[in-house]
Amino acid sequence: MQNFRRVFVFFLSLFFFSLTTQVFAATSPDPTEQLKPVIDKVVSLLKDANFRKRPIVDQSEVIVKIVSERFDFREMSKRVMGKQWRTLKPEQQDQFVGLFTKLLQYVYINQVDDYLDKKIEFTGQRIKRDRAEVKTLLVAQDKSIPVSYIMLLEKDSWMAYDIAVEGVSLIRNYMEQINTVLRDEKFTGLISMLEKKITKLEAGEKDE
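Given the sequence above, the corresponding structure tokens read:
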């Protein structure tokens, strides 16, 4: 599985930003404002030297629990699987959601130190009924990377289920890769691949 950089940029954008003025619909909650409490919690943790000394497994579990308040990993997993999702038994769906979520959390925690000096700027948002796009820029000294969150309104909560980095959808990218593995190696092959990558990332190794 490739393009781990896009996964990391997603998480980084979620965790570190300064809120800008937004125009939003008065009849629904504001997606950007709903992200802020989550971001505050994670920023506080990442500034805690004692927390950063904890085992990577512990750090990852704490962070993903916080992020889950505003990111629907099950919806993301369902969309990544596409039509194949309906062919899976409930227990297989749960297994994939668990492994895919764990993969993303380890990708983030293994690369966070490389991006702590970046700044996040929110540039606007669009809301259309129960869908929203929150636009941001990940600003470095020599480059600005556009990052957009795609969110779904679930009751009174905006939940992110996709991220577009430089115009490339994370969902679409993973969908292509996962469907290729499913076609060639079936579901058992996909699970085996995910487990191997997770084991590698748990050991602190970076994947590509």
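Helices lie at 4-15, 31-46, 49-52, 56-67, 73-81, 90-111, 170-202. Try to locate this feature in the token string yourself.
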